[in-house]
Amino acid sequence: MYMPSVSGVAAPFAGKLHVEGIQTVVPTKPTDPRKSSTIHVPQHLTSTTLLQRRFHVLLCYHKAYDDDSGWLLAGQIKESLGRALQEEPLIAGRMRRREEDLQIVSNDSGVRLVEAKAEMKLDDFVDKRLAAAELVCWEDVVETNPNFNPLFYVQVTNFSCEGYSIGISCSLLLIDPFVLTTFLKNWSNIHKNIVSNHNAPKIPAFYLPHHGKSYPAQLMGTNTFNNAAETVIFKIPTNILNSDNNIHKNLAARCINEAEREIGRNIAPNLSLFLKVPHEDAKVEICSREGLLESLSSDQGGDDFNGLSSCVRTWDELELKHLCFNEGKKPIYVSCWINSLVDEGSVMIVPVDADNSGFQIVVTFT
User: How far apart, in whole angstroms, are the C-alpha atoms of residue 154 and residue 20?
Assistant: First the structure.
């Protein structure tokens, strides 16, 4: 069963979810030289929600074999994720303020790995369409001093029987959903190679079931805004953008118009506009809906947008329904969403790929 997005909120876990352990996963080798990524932000930025916007992925799996469990998977992840981070070290980095801008540095501080236990059957969770917010961990980035906050979380949740889930949370300032998908597919391939090795130990070194005292999941992270926002996705098949002109604002306004017609309501009055052009630093602007739509004119760049694709409201294109951590064992349930934030929408304009073959435009409502 493939559910590409979260729709609505059903009954929560209501105390049936407990955290069993928290670990940090770092790249298997030190990153040298260090890499960095700069995000240009407006001076005197007052929007704290910008730091909390993130993408969530939830993958639910039945057991691959009788002795399979989320505990085993979490122990194996310590190694496989470390190898994957070696190829993408920025994901294990931290954010810092650099003059007026933000910078992410690959300092090998690591990603957070959370092991949890749910007093519920996996099939009951899937069948009842329960809210997924508690199965993806996140701690808000501290606005004044973001240096110590992870930007990437993995939560492995063991259900009482039948299987487990993998919940992923990732800052959208770190990586967009499309690049994240490439990373996840590479990570899963690394993981499958490790577990299929006949010389690999049956019990991984970091197998830690019931290692210590568990505590309610409500004490871990800030899941209040992990619920899904409504999102509409567009694609431009040609490369027409650069960060030195205002075409992206005109494009954002056109997509907002189309998205509002699709959703049936207006986006929030205030929104963040995130632009990433290949081989350039990312850029964030804080805009108003009214200002963007006023700048929209039928004769400015109209011919450039003839290739604007029809909009979609799901993340099917990511094809995460095929993501396997055990060979041939596909997820029974997949959910992807951008989190909902109070009183602020967003527009993200990012490349389709590194070959400049087009752009994805993601309009997110509150």
Answer: 14
Q: What are phi and psi of 87, to 5 degrees?
A: -85, -25
| DSSP symbol at 301 | S
pLDDT tens-digit series, residues 15-55: 788 899 899 999 999 999 999 999 998 765 555 677 889 99
The single-letter code of the amino acid at 224 is T
Query: Do 349 and 274 meet the contact criterion of CB atoms below 8 Å apart?
Result: yes
Retrieve residue 94's tokens: 């931290």
17-25, strands of its sheet edge to edge: 215-216, 17-25, 111-118, 152-159, 163-171, 54-62, 333-338
Q: How far apart are CA 121 and CA 127, in angstroms?
A: 10
SS3 content of the chain, % helix, strand, coil (to 5): 25, 30, 45
Give the pLDDT of residue 175. Answer: 94
Which residues are CB-neighbours of 205 under 8 A, at least 6 positions away?
A: 75, 78, 79
Q: Coil, helix or strand for 185?
A: helix
Cβ neighbourhood burial of 113 (10 Å; 0-12, 13-18, 19+)? buried
270: β partners: 288
SS3 326: coil
**Distances from the Cα of 154 to the Cα of 166, 232, 249, 251, 296, angstroms:** 7, 25, 34, 34, 41
Which class for 28: exposed (0-12), middle (13-18), buried (19 or more C-beta within 10 A)?
middle
pLDDT for 122 beyond 90: yes
* pTM for the predicted model, two decimal places: 0.90
Q: Where are the alpha helices (DSSP H) in 152-238?
A: 177-195
Residue 236: partners with Cβ closer than 8 Å, 6 or more residues away = 251, 305, 307, 308, 309, 358, 359, 361
CB atoms within 10 A of CB 237: 12
335-345 burial code (b ≥16 CB/10 A, e <16): bbbbbbbeebb
Burial label, 205 (beta-carbon count in 10 A; 0-12, 13-18, 19+): exposed
Helix (H, G, I), strand (E, B) or coil at 126: helix
Q: How far apart are CA 345 and CA 298, in angstroms?
A: 24
